[in-house]
């Protein structure tokens, strides 16, 4: 191999410094390496714009009647300050919803609260529990779709007593709810009893407050510009899973998420690997693609990015 070729060859990878997050479009110094501390210090990235068109976030609810009070109590905790109780360097005090995000939230009008019976057998229509849950979800979102101007986010409470019905090999109520809501363009936040009873309140409030803000259309932070990285850089996130074929051979599957510098225009690329796994135990601990399969994923992802964002020529 010639020295000229070696000098021109691209490295297999380059390690970048941990990027900082930007919390303002107008103040370049409003950056921080810790998302929670940065949000508490500077507020959301889009705070001025968001507050201009949404003075408060209106929350609607779906769930069994007996759980409405508990869900309401959980949401009320978001208004309070909570000190972290876990010994974790990442943990930080939660300052309260309005102080953190600059806006408050409120209960949506009565019509935007769908109360289900407490027994699955009394839900919707259908011959099976799963069919009844799916029917109840379908009708709930049909009802909410007619009054979309009265709320911004919907919480869906799935109680622990229903879990044997809500998640089976053939049915997942969470996924069904998300699919139906997406068809009506209604943002949702699923809440279960585990979240309601979670004793690390600071941690829970951070997660739930940010989730509600984002699902209402807010942008808490963006990736700050990276030194030496062009503005038109494509970012690709990779997620892995393992699948088994009928002959017991295992393959790694990969899903890549492609987005631009601002985190917008996300596109998904699903890829089925061709090279079988040599060491299944290692792959389950740290799944990865072969060099050839990874090259195929990146080529397909970059082609998608180029077709979407780069100028087209005749």
Word description of this protein:
This protein is α/β, with parallel strands linked by helices. It has 2 domains: 21-222, 3-Layer(aba) Sandwich (Rossmann fold), CATH 3.40.50.2300; 235-309, no CATH class. 36% of the residues lie in helices and 20% in strands.
- Helix percent reads 25-40%
Q: What count of structural domains?
A: 2
H and E string: HEEHHEHHEEHEHEEHEHHEEEEHH
Euclidean distance between termini CA atoms? 39 Å
Return the average pLDDT rounded to an integer: 85
Using the coordinates above, name the CATH class of the largest domain.
Alpha Beta
How many β-strands, per DSSP?
Answer: 13
Q: Output the structural class.
A: alpha/beta
Coarse shape:
globular
CATH topology of the largest domain: Rossmann fold
The unreliable regions are none
Radius of gyration: 23 Å
**Named CATH architecture of the largest domain:** 3-Layer(aba) Sandwich
Proportion of residues in β-strands: 15-25%
Would you summarize the structure shown here?
This protein has 314 residues and is an alpha/beta fold. The chain has twelve helices and 13 strands. The protein has helices at 3-8, 35-42, 47-53, 68-77, 97-101, 129-145, 163-166, 173-183, 193-196, 201-215, 280-285, 291-309; strands spanning 21-22, 31-32, 56-64, 104-107, 113-116, 153-158, 167-168, 171-172, 188-192, 222-223, 235-244, 250-259, 267-272.
């Amino acid at each position: 191999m010639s020295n000229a070729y070696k000098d021109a060859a691209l490295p297999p990878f380059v390690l970048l410094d941990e990027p900082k997050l930007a919390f303002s479009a107008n103040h370049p110094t409003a950056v921080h390496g810790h998302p929670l501390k940065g949000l508490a210090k500077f507020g959301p990235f889009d705070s001025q714009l968001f507050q201009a068109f949404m003075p408060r976030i209106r929350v609607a609810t779906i769930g069994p009647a007996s759980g409405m009070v508990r869900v309401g109590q959980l949401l009320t905790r978001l208004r309070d300050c909570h000190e972290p109780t876990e010994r974790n360097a990442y943990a930080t005090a939660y300052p309260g919803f309005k102080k953190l995000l600059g806006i408050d939230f409120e209960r949506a009008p009565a019509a935007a609260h769908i109360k289900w019976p407490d027994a699955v057998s009394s839900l919707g229509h259908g011959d099976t529990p799963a069919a009844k849950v799916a029917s109840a979800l379908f009708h709930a979102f049909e009802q909410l779709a007619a009054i979309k101007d009265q709320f911004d986010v919907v919480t869906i409470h799935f109680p622990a007593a229903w879990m044997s019905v809500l998640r089976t090999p053939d049915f997942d109520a969470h996924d069904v709810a998300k699919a139906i809501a997406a068809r009506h363009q209604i943002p949702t936040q699923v809440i279960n009893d585990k979240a309601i009873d979670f004793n690390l309140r600071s941690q829970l409030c951070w997660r739930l407050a940010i989730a509600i803000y984002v699902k209402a259309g807010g942008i808490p932070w963006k990736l700050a510009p990276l030194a030496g990285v062009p503005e038109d850089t494509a970012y690709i996130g990779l997620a892995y899973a393992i699948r088994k074929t009928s002959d017991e051979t295992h393959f790694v599957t990969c899903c890549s998420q492609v987005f631009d510098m601002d985190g917008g225009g996300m596109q998904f690329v699903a890829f089925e690997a061709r090279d079988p796994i040599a060491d299944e135990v290692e792959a389950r601990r740290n799944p990865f693609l072969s060099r050839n399969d990874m090259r195929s994923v990146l080529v397909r992802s970059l082609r998608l990015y180029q077709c979407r964002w780069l100028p087209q020529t005749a």
